[in-house]
Amino acid sequence: MVLYEYPFNESIRTMLRLEHLFDRLGQLLPRDAAVDHHFALVTMFEIMDVAARADLKSDLLKELERHKAQLVAYRSNPQVSQAALDGVIGRIDTAFDALNQQPGKAGQALAGHEWLTSVRSRIGIPGGTCEFDLPAYYAWQQRDAQRRRADLLGWVATLEPLAQALQVLLQLVRDGGVPHKVVSQGGQFQQSLPPGRSYQLLRLRMAGDDDLVPEITGHRLMVSVRLLRSDGEGRLRPAPVDLPFELTLCP
Predict the structure, then answer these.
(1) What sign does the dihedral 154-88-70-250 (CA atoms) show?
(2) What is the 3-state secondary structure (H, E, C) of 145-162?
(3) 28: closest CA among 5, 49, 46?
(4) Domain-by-domain residue ranges, the chain?
């Protein structure tokens, strides 16, 4: 099964992009090859670029507060495990406090790092980090893998409050949805959304063995899924098939 996610607003779109980058960074850091640590740096700089949005931090803090308020309302509900509820609220509080105490934007602490700034200015240029362009960076790549990793972990630690807040918030959003089974008719599926209710994320889980790709669109009134299949030249064409899949709308 393959899981696809579609954000309904720009804030969630940015958060999903950051989650994708943090996941990539987490896979690259434990490796030992210099080229993996090069792309770990590339990913770290991408995270800093995406996180430079002025209202990202305030959006995260506001959403964490909103979810906490919703959960606190369940404290008097006898059908809810209070221990589990306290655990979730505790994770929200920890993430909120860590992010709130971090000054400025994510990665701002690295802005004055001269060596990182020199690498960042060249890393987006094709071939711009060759040894004759950045000899200091080339020398760093020749170091022992453990020394490189220690440097990387130190730099990435400044982004940890952002990563933690993202993880907690996106888990809350995903857990708020209820999956249900639907079927496309002739490769098309549409569903009207209840008036007065807003959603942040759509999750679609489908079989991945038919070379089908879902084209998802949505707004406050309706969601639509169109199934496509790649032709011999790599172009996506409509696939008129009836296919069951799982759809989750997360408020």
Answers:
(1) positive
(2) HHHHHHHHHHHHHHHHHH
(3) 46
(4) 8-173, 177-250
Sheet architecture: strand order including 201-206: 2-7, 201-206, 244-250, 180-183
Tens digit of pLDDT for each residue in 209-245?
A: 778 999 999 888 899 999 999 887 888 999 999 999 9
* pTM of the shown model: 0.91
CATH topology (fold) of 177-250: YacF-like (2.60.440)
Nearest-angstrom CA–CA distance, 216 and 247: 11
CATH 3.40.430.10 for domain 8-173, yes or no, is: no
Give the C-alpha separation, 97 to 67, whole Å.
Answer: 15
Across 70-79, b (16+ Cβ under 10 Å) vs e yields: ebeeeeeeee
Count the alpha carbons within 13 Å of 161 in the hemisphere toward its beta carbon: 21
Task: Pick the closest to residue 106 from 152, 161, 41, 146 (CA basis).
Answer: 161
For 140, the enclosing helix (H) or strand (E) is helix 135-141
Angle at 29 between CA 119 and CA 37, to 5 degrees: 35
CA 2, chain centre distance (Å)? 17
Q: What is the pLDDT of residues 11-51, one digit of tens each?
A: 999 999 999 999 999 999 999 999 999 999 999 999 999 99
Helix (H) or strand (E) holding 83: helix 82-101
**DSSP element (H, E) containing 100:** helix 82-101
Average confidence (pLDDT) over 66-75:
89
